Amino acid sequence: MSARLPLLLLSLLLLSACGKNDCHVTIGETNFSIRPNEAEYYGLNNPGGYLYLTGGHRGIVVVRLAYDRFVAFERTCPEDNSTPVEISSDWGSSLLECPQCHSCFVVENDGIPLDGAATSCPLYQYNTIYSGGELWVY
Q1: How far apart, in whole angstroms, are the C-alpha atoms of residue 67 and residue 61?
Q2: pTM for the complete prediction?
Q3: CA distances from 64 to 67, 71, 127 (A)
Q4: Contact in structure between 119 and 100 (CB atoms under 8 Å)
Q5: Calpha distance 138→60 (Å, rounded)
Q6: Tens digits of residue pLDDT in 101-116
Q7: 133 and 35 in contact (C-beta within 8 Å)?
Q8: How deeply is 80 buried, as exposed, middle or buried, from its count of CB atoms within 10 A (0-12, 13-18, 19+)?
Q9: Alpha carbon 132 to chain centroid distance?
Q10: Distance between CA atoms of 75 and 90, rounded to whole angstroms?
């Protein structure tokens, strides 16, 4: 009987770790480059600018934080895989918001949700490299 107790405790611990807020976001394969200073990508020409791009699962949003600093997030909301997040109409490119569950994610803080969000999971963040006027998202 005493040998079962550690096994039972381990099982309960594992089950409690498998809650609603496990961070399992559907993403798509992404590997592309753009030249954000060109007219075609005018939304990214200045810091604070953003652009929705195709790729990933529900699309990708790229935000230019500074002249040489970009972030790219999967638009799939961690709470509702069927809904793409959008730039907040109230806060601009500093927050992404899910129109379905109303969770807000802080762009400059790796897509972490604000307190009170429907999820505790951050947005999926793609890797970015900016070099020689070219931005790689992968």
Answers
A1: 17
A2: 0.81
A3: 7, 7, 14
A4: no
A5: 11
A6: 999 999 999 999 999 8
A7: yes
A8: middle
A9: 25
A10: 18
* Sheet with strand 112-113: strands edge to edge: 86-88, 92-97, 104-106, 112-113
Q: How many residues does the chain have?
A: 138
Amino acid identity for residue 107 in this structure: V
pLDDT tens-place string over residues 29-61: 899 999 999 999 999 999 999 999 999 999 999
Q: Work out whether the CA dihedral 31, 95, 98, 121 comes out positive or negative.
A: positive
Spell out the domains of the chain, with CATH numbers in brackets: 23-137 (2.102.10.10)
Helix (H) / strand (E) containing 85: none
**Comparing C-alpha atoms, which of 102, 109, 110, 55 is closest to residue 80?**
102
* 123 within 8 A of 78, measured Cβ to Cβ: yes
- Residues with Cβ within 8 Å of 12's Cβ and at least 6 positions away in sequence, in order, are none
Q: Which residues pair with 40 in a beta bridge?
A: none
